[in-house]
Amino acid sequence: MTYQQHLTDFDDLIDIDDLRGRIRGAVYVPGQSGYDTVGFNACAVNNPAAVIDAADRDDVAAVIAFAGEHGMTVAVQATGHGAVGTDRRSLLVRTGALDMCEVDPASRTARVGAGVRWQRVIDAAAPHGLAPVCGSAPGVGVVGLLSGGGVGPLVRTFGLSADYVRSFEVVTGDGVIRRAAPDENAELFWGLRGGKATLGLITEAVIELPELSEMYAGAIYFDGADAAPVLRAWRAWAQALPRTATTSVALMRLPDMPGVPPILAGRLTVAVRYASVAPQSVAAAELASMRAVAAPIFDGVGPMPYSALGAIHADPSDPVPAHEGGMLLTDLPDEAVQTLLQHAGPESATMLMMVELRQLGGALGDEPAVRSAFCHREAAFNLHAVGILVPPIADAVVADAAGLVDGMQRWATGGRLPNFVSSADPAIIRSCYDDDTVAWLAALARQLDPRGVLAVGQVVR
């Protein structure tokens, strides 16, 4: 039997009318207009047997039960930022209709459905002086970020996004709807924060909201010719920053296209990102030495409402065919900076669009009040490279990302962060966790998903 015949047999065995009869939401099969499966990362090829727009948690449970009966798997998509692809052996659940977003200022919490993006929560919390601890791109889904941990522009001050989860509502691989919290299904709660979809499809989360309205934040862009002095100064400056501040630096080669500021397009620039909750005068004085390293081509750092957090990294909002690579680093000595410049600096011919270093440490390295499956809190920096897979540079992008990673191996911890990985490769997934965490996640998965319904995509098995 050929692979294609195997997939066709799955199509023949599925009773789509039966599936439609079990749920309230819509079900689409290949060829129907609602089947479109392109998410944010357009490189992820999704060709599932059916796409289901779940209306509620009961729909999610029914789809998982249906898949279990037919020997299939179930993948999930909100925005598709971390999608890794599916084939006809899978059903793809879209969660856009799970759109609850309720802020309770008295308890300083938000109840958020699986289809909600961070910007909506930010905007709902802002009138109350509250701020959800999110990542650098507020256009991503809340649940996807939380399930992978969540390393944001203020991670050294507030720590991991997942550490602010109070409870989850989740459908596990056996089709059961469960509540997971520190005092209920505690092992499941542990694994959902960092374990991606290994243990279940999260349908709702309750998160704590710290008090924060404003910060001193933004990005300074320098010309690529100044990359060497800027990177070396940034390395020394970042090491002295207090916990009130978080920073990252990125070598950017943004294309000349709509949406990209002309001053940054078609050239190499160096973006120094900075976010501080210290008083404005203190934060400005702290940043002064970096501002003086070279003449900025654009300085966008200043007082900023938390609701404008997305402007710090200015991540793209439209779908892109992205290829990613990276690693966690133990340190960033001068030799590491020189290696980075060789692979992505002004003298290189790299096809990578962005090579970024995020400073970690601070509150991220603290032992959380409630333990989670998120690992590698001890790392000093996260190195992340992104390229666009379009002809004729696609092969060069993959090669350049691999070359960068290989060149920086001397300073690698051996680990990676789940939300900076878009891969179903078991070896890459395992690198996101220590051995004990892998063993425990796999054991819980066997218990909660005995038929392997969720054994697809970025999961531990």
Record keyword descriptors for this entry:
461 residues, alpha+beta, Uridine Diphospho-n-acetylenolpyruvylglucosamine Reductase, domain 3, Vanillyl-alcohol Oxidase, Chain A, domain 3, eight-stranded antiparallel sheet, five-stranded antiparallel sheet, 17 strands
The whole-angstrom Rg is 22 Å
Number of alpha- plus pi-helical segments: 13
Number of domains: 3
Stretches with pLDDT under 50, minimum 5 residues: 1-8
Distance between the termini: 26 Å
Query: Fraction of residues in helices?
Result: 25-40%
What is the residue-averaged pLDDT? 94
Outline the fold blueprint.
Layout: H1 3-13, H2 16-22, E1 26-28, E2 50-53, H3 57-69, E3 73-77, E4 90-94, E5 101-104, E6 109-113, H4 118-125, H5 142-148, H6 155-158, E7 165-171, E8 177-180, H7 186-192, E9 201-208, E10 214-223, H8 227-239, E11 245-254, E12 267-276, H9 280-291, E13 296-299, E14 302-305, E15 322-329, H10 334-344, E16 354-359, E17 381-388, H11 394-407, H12 426-430, H13 435-448
Parallel strand pairs: 2-4, 3-4
Antiparallel strand pairs: 1-2, 5-6, 6-9, 7-8, 7-9, 10-12, 10-13, 10-14, 11-12, 11-16, 15-17, 16-17
Helix pairs in contact: 8-10, 10-11
